[in-house]
Amino acid sequence: MSTNSRSLSRRALGRLAAAATAAAGGVTLAGCAGRADTASPDAPLRIVANNHVWAEAIREYFGEFEEHVGRRVVMSILTADQLANSYNVKLNASATDIDVMMLRPLQDLLLFAHNDWVADLTDLVTGDRDYDWSDFQEAPRQRCTVADRVVSVPVVTERPALYYRRDLVADLGGPPATLDELMAVSLELADRRNGFFGYVGRGQRAGAVSQWSSFLYSFGGDFTVDDRSAIATDEAIAAYRYYGELLERTGPPGVTNMTLEQAMPIFAQGKAAFYIDADAIYTNFLDPTISTVQDTIGFAPFPAGPAGALGYNIPSWSLSINAFSLLRDDAWEFVRWATSPEMVARIQGDGIPGARASAWADSDTLGAFPPELAETMRIGAERGVDHDRPEVLQVGRARDIVGRPLVAAVLGQDVPPVARDADAEFADFLVRDNRHRGI
């Protein structure tokens, strides 16, 4: 590492510390954690990331950051399950060999903040005028804030998109604009005896909850109301029934076992007319090595239900700093660089949807997406609800409870008694979850 590089690092971090000190009355990121430990000047900055296109894209620019800060960067890329297991083991042991963590805010952040595993970034993101925290879309920004503390920064966002076959709806007035229309057209186009389905979507008990959430909101419901279970309200039962009927009557067999990995290829292989899932997965349908619909696929906003077209708008992935890191200042400098207006625009220009409003207002970044998809994303961001699953500490258990009536609906069972039973279980879970304690 050269003397010039080290000087650059000190100057950059000095400016950063000054901004934080001005905003926080003398508190820096390193001081917040209350640790006196220091790392070797030659120690690499360690990033742990998901096997995601964003991680691959940002890694291409590591040379720029290393030259700027004067420290080598090492990134470990893991699957989502491996990532969860690694964090659970290492953070419980207060491990210092992770500096920056790529995580799922809606799945992980409440628990991580509750356990004091993530550094408080509030003064850093709000005290740096050039960084412009207010430029991040409101919904993703809020999901990275816990008890008025910013503990993560969003890097990838997603909303639901209606993927449809243009050739099949050309004579029907275009894609369905309402859920009633989606049901009617799916029934009309389904030819299940010959292996063609009107609609395909996730049906697996826990895995389907995030996509079902948009149906729930559009029927006027939510997972909780005033911190109490709301999954047996009239609105929730109507959403369960609708989604169940859509899959039961027009979907493929075995749908209750279908996650993203099973449902997506059915649409990609031209075996379904409609599919609703995250807009971030659109490239799978444009890749001729896995898709037969790349020339006929269309993109549309989530259809309107009785309460409107209310899909989610969430940060699917974000960056946090390990509270036990010995390189917290350099870790923040990395997060600041990776989520700067310039870098977000650059990454979004590669077709990866970011969280900054300025990037979405830039015609050059929108040009990376098919025009119909870019408009679908824009509309979804404006209408979007800021969560796609229950906001609790133990998210996996909550999804399992909420998904039980959904499976019953797909199987054609009587939904209200199952929903009432799940509602009682969920109400008890919310008390035991202690989701507000200590956060």
Oligomeric state, counting identical vs distinct chains: single chain
The helix/strand class is alpha/beta
What radius of gyration results from the CA coordinates?
Answer: 23 Å
Task: Tell me the β content.
Answer: 5-15%
Enumerate the strands of the largest sheet in spatial order, edge to edge or round the barrel.
2-1-3-13-6
Low-confidence stretches: 1-27, 30-36
Largest sheet: 5 strands, mixed
Span from first to last CA? 40 Å
| Gross CATH architecture of the largest domain | 3-Layer(aba) Sandwich
Our count of helices gives: 20
CATH H-level homologous superfamily name of the largest domain:
Periplasmic binding protein-like II
The CATH topology label of the largest domain is: D-Maltodextrin-Binding Protein, domain 2
Count of discrete domains:
2
Please state the overall shape, judged from the principal axes of the Cα atoms.
Answer: globular
- Count of strand segments: 13
Organism: Streptomyces hainanensis
Pfam families: SBP_bac_1
Keywords: Signal
InterPro entries: Bact_solute-bd_prot1, SBP, TAT_signal
